[in-house]
Amino acid sequence: MSRALGLIGICKKANKLIQGFDVVVESAQNGEVSGIYLAKDISPKTQKEILFACADTNIPIVSLDITMDELGRVLGRRVGVIGITDSGLAKKLNSFGDSMK
To answer: 31's torsion region: left (phi>0), alpha (psi -120 to 50) or beta?
Structure first.
């Protein structure tokens, strides 16, 4: 398992992770998220929509080198968009991906 997936697992156990496009966007617009993370195999349309929906926030959006299936194994549900609510954990996870914003 990659270090990024291990950190995502820790975030889930600590209840510092939210998953799914709609929930992440709503939490980002309410200022409850410290980072937004995208699986590498999400559709270009979903990627464009998340960038548009969160354009007016200062929240980093990071593309991880992790597939939706890999996230599904860690989170128990196949998902392409996650958000981290803890700033320290989000900052650490930022180092594992490519910033899109």
So the answer is: left
pLDDT in tens, 46-76: 999 999 999 889 999 999 999 999 999 999 9
CATH code, domain with 31: 3.30.1330.30
Using an 8 Å Cβ cutoff, are 87 and 44 in contact?
A: no
Is the pTM of the predicted complex or chain greater than 0.90?
yes
Question: How far apart are the C-alpha atoms of 82 and 71, rounded to whole Å?
Answer: 9
**What whole-number distance in Å separates Cα of residue 47 and Cα of residue 12?**
23
How do 61-64 and 97-99 pair as beta strands?
antiparallel
Give the number of domains in the chain: 1
